[in-house]
Amino acid sequence: MTLHQLVRPEKYQGGKRPSFAAAYARAARRYGIQAGRNVGFVKRNNVVVKVKGRDDKNTEHEVPAESIQNVSMLMHSDVREPCAHLVASLEYVVPVKIGTPGVTLHLDFDTGSSDLWVWSTELARASTLKGHTVYNPSKSHTAKKAPGTWSISYEDGSSASGNVYTDNVTVADITIKNQAVELAEKLSASFLQDNGKDGLLGLAWPQINTVQPEPVATPVENMIKQKLINPPVFTVKLDRGDDAGFYSFGYIDTSVTHHPIKYTSVDKCVFIESFGAYILTEPRVDSSQGFWQVASTSWTLNGQIRARYGNTAVLDTGTTLLLVDDEIVDAIYDSIDGAVYDDQQGGYKYPSNATIPDICFAVGDTLYKVNPKDFAFGDAGNGFTFGGIQSRGDLGFDIFGDIFLKSVYVVFNQGNSTVGLAQRDE
């Protein structure tokens, strides 16, 4: 069994979390959101900026390239204890050993990127950096210098770059030999100020790996090539609060939920006359852009089913919010008494004591309910709460981030390009 427990860094425990602006700006940068009726943050000229308001889409100011801004845990006025369901589930890290004898780093696992990069002794003044474990290839007798360089820019404006080594990488009890490890030589200021993680391990498809002149194999790709996992899958169970959940590799934990895992179909399409084209009606994975992208052609609000022909969604553990089209966003918040769009903060908010409607989104022909505990993102001030479902802007697909993923158990099958989901009730 290769369950790999997630941990929450100390800085994210006890109710601390990124700000709403940081979470929304991250998604805007990653996916290049440029416009939209309800979108509060857009990417213009490779910079994330906040728009002035719902009815004024002139840009207001550049969003600082900070990955984390801590805020306090929200308190309801009618209870004495902190509302645990409002604790952040935005930053998950996993202990990974690199090298021989090896050093253990805490890495962010991200299904929306494909690089394995780490803090390293290649960084200037690496010995003076506090709050991080750094990888030193000279201390590992299995490390070898490899050709190539890498450079990546992330969703919040942060960036990292450097050179490449190969070494043994151990995830849970699986040791990958000669895995490419991208060593950070340069990090933007926001990374240098972030003590939450020592790097990132990408779980998306290999084609978006940034190593030049040739991309390198991802850890999961090498697990499959080296026949280290069977079945060729990894799975994700994201939890709330300090009980962060787990990833597994080569193992499907059927004890997570009593609901069945519904898998994707690789080739089922039908001809939709109004579209004049074949449209996916089952959640076949589209990996052409490097993401885990599946069909999502319906949704429900308080039990009323609404069709979304031809729609798709990206399953992304590296995005916090659940981002969908403006019509859905408006319908959801129109159903919540007192909900309003906040021009100043760039998104919908609602009274903290409001009743949350039943909301489901489809993956394939199966609808999955968003747990009401996860709908609340965080404190918006003056008795209001930011909603975890916001606008995708002008994107042609949805982003199913952690707000959605905490409600399901997900099996990512890279061997046959399918995804399986099961509803969770807790």
UniProtKB/TrEMBL annotation:
Gene Ontology process terms (BP): proteolysis
In Pfam terms, one family for this protein is Asp
At the top level of its lineage, which domain of life is listed?
A: Eukaryota
Q: Where is the signal peptide?
A: none
According to the UniProt entry, its GO molecular function terms are: aspartic-type endopeptidase activity
Q: What keywords sit in the KW lines? A: Aspartyl protease, Hydrolase, Protease
Q: Which CDD domains match?
A: Aspergillopepsin_like
Family that this chain belongs to: Belongs to the peptidase A1 family.
Name of the protein: Peptidase A1 domain-containing protein
Q: Which species is this UniProt entry from?
A: Pycnoporus cinnabarinus (Cinnabar-red polypore)
